[in-house]
Amino acid sequence: MPSKHFSLFCWNIANPSLERAGRQAEWLRKRPEDILVLTEAKQSKGCVFLERYFQAYGYNVVFPKPKEKEFGVIIASKCSLTPNNFSNHVDYLQARVASVTLNLPSGEIEIIGIYVPSRDSSPKKVDRKKRFLESVTYALERAPRPSRRIFCGDFNVLEPDHIPHYPFFAEWEYDFYRNLTKYQLRDAFRHLQPLIQEYSWVGRTGDGYRYDHCFVSENLLPLIKKCYYFHKPREIRLSDHSALITELVL
């Protein structure tokens, strides 16, 4: 059977207004990637528009609706998919996790998209982020583990040896990144680019942060063709984040 390129576009859409969501939708529809994992989505006019827009164009869309002012994740796919129950194992801020199983000719792949809360130094926000990371870790520990998994999104967590180093981040945040290896997950970008410094979000002072990540099962590592940060959507102000594109040959 001939090989097939399978690609994933992971991007923080920054809870767009209805007007900006329209621009995002038209721009995204022209993208060649098979799967869109869109983080920082609310049950807002802009995000509900994106959901309905992609459904109208024949995409399979999963969007667990966040409550009130909470955030979540939209997964829109050109491939056949079914929602799965990974997120049911997340017992805190569950809408920040969307999980699906893709039905591909080469077999099934589980896609998990997450949007980790950001924080400042206030105890309430620190506790919120810590509880969410603990809940996701619990789900990785307890949920059935498929043979092929892609775990991606805006983690609001940096790799431990991130350059530059920001003292604001705590060891428990770095531990979340480190501990993903316990579940046979590896950083796809770092697998291909062990030394390059890239950033998916840039602050007002010009400091860069690699917040957005794509981890894959170890058995998918040899199949990764490309994994890179695509800065155009940030440069043209469709969002304040760059996208992360991962392409595999199955």
Summarize the SSE layout with pairings.
Elements: E1 5-12, H1 18-29, E2 35-41, H2 45-56, E3 60-62, E4 72-77, E5 81-83, E6 97-104, E7 107-115, H3 123-142, E8 149-154, H4 171-179, E9 185-187, H5 188-192, E10 201-202, E11 208-209, E12 212-217, E13 224-230, H6 232-235, E14 243-249
Parallel strand pairs: 1-2, 7-8
Antiparallel strand pairs: 1-14, 2-4, 3-4, 5-6, 6-7, 8-12, 9-12, 10-11, 13-14
Helix pairs in contact: 1-2
Q: Radius of gyration from the CA trace?
A: 17 Å
Helix content: 10-25%
Order of helices and strands: EHEHEEEEEHEHEHEEEEHE
What is the CATH superfamily label? Endonuclease/exonuclease/phosphatase
**Which oligomerization state do the chains in this entry correspond to?**
single chain
Largest sheet: 6 strands, mixed
Q: Architecture, according to CATH?
A: 4-Layer Sandwich
Tell the overall outline: globular
N-to-C span: 10 Å
Strand order of the largest sheet: 3-4-2-1-14-13
CATH fold description: Deoxyribonuclease I, Chain A
DSSP strand tally: 14
List low-confidence stretches.
none
In the CATH scheme, the class would be Alpha Beta
